[in-house]
């Protein structure tokens, strides 16, 4: 049932996007469409009503719908400046997924030793800068999601991905990001970015992703939605 709900939501999102190729208001409408369909996913990914209640009061105020794009644009620019050296070294990537979502992907090689969930000291200054930006943009919630390659058993990889996500989330919390804004989970080897049959593919698959979601007034889904 969960997979069917997610599939319908994704299909609906694609339909919204596909109908607006020549629409000058495309960006705003795509953001609204994605916000509408993600409501179908809420209870399946973030613990139902408990998840909604947890995140509903997690931020100071909420954004009006028309202010979301500018707010997230500014936050993305600050994050790119904060992670300039990590971006140049391919230790991190930053993407805008839609109007109200920023995705940061951190290389596990740069963040953790082999089979370890303890953060490397070399990544901590970067996370300090990320936490500082998040502190200034406090009308957001943050999903920290861990991933592994397929080396090792499913259960081992799932546990490792969870521990690494928790490690990053805990570090951000210790640097001033309210724990009520943070949600950590692991996806193990289930969502690879590339083939696990090559060294480069496995390297890409070992990562921790941060999904920064704006909390929008009147749209509870954005205060509690999972990135998937």
> Biggest sheet, strands in spatial order?
1-2-5-3-4
Number of domains: 1
Strand content: 15-25%
**Sheet with the most strands, sense and barrel status:** 5 strands, mixed
**Mean pLDDT, as a whole number?**
77
Radius of gyration based on Cα positions? 17 Å
The succession of helices and strands, N to C, reads HHHHHHEEHHEHEHE
Shape: globular
Briefly, what CATH class? Answer: Alpha Beta
The number of helices is 10
In the CATH hierarchy, the architecture is: 2-Layer Sandwich
Considering the protein shown, what is the CATH homologous superfamily? OmpA-like domain
Helical content stands at 40-55%
Protein structure class: alpha+beta
Distance between the termini: 15 Å
Which stretches of 5+ consecutive residues score pLDDT under 50? 1-58
Number of strands: 5
CATH fold field value: 60s Ribosomal Protein L30, Chain: A
Brief overview:
Keywords: Cell outer membrane, Cell projection, Cilium, Flagellum, Membrane. The protein has helices spanning 2-18, 26-38, 42-45, 48-56, 68-82, 84-88, 108-111, 124-136, 154-174, 199-205; strands spanning 92-98, 101-107, 140-147, 182-186, 207-214. It is α+β, with helices and mostly antiparallel strands.
């Amino acid at each position: 049932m969960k997979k069917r709900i997610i599939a319908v939501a994704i299909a609906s999102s694609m339909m919204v996007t596909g109908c607006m190729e020549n629409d000058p208001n495309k960006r705003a409408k795509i953001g609204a469409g994605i916000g509408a369909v993600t409501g179908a996913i809420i209870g399946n990914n973030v613990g139902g009503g408990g998840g909604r209640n947890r995140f509903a009061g997690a931020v100071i105020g909420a954004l009006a719908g028309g202010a979301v794009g500018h707010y997230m644009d500014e936050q993305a620019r600050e994050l790119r400046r904060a992670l300039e050296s990590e971006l140049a070294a391919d230790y991190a990537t930053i993407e805008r997924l839609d109007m109200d979502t920023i995705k940061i992907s951190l290389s596990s090689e740069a963040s953790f030793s082999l089979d370890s969930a303890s953060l490397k000291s070399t990544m901590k200054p970067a996370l300090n800068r990320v936490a500082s930006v998040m502190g200034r943009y406090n009308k957001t919630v943050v999903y920290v999601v861990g991933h592994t390659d397929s080396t090792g058993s499913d259960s081992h990889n799932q546990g490792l991905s969870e521990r690494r996500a928790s490690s990053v989330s805990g570090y951000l919390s210790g640097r001033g990001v309210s724990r009520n804004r943070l949600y950590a989970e692991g996806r193990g080897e289930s969502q690879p970015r590339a083939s696990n049959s090559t060294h480069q593919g496995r390297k890409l698959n070992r990562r921790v992703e941060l999904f920064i979601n704006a909390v929008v007034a009147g749209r509870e889904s954005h205060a509690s939605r999972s990135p998937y």
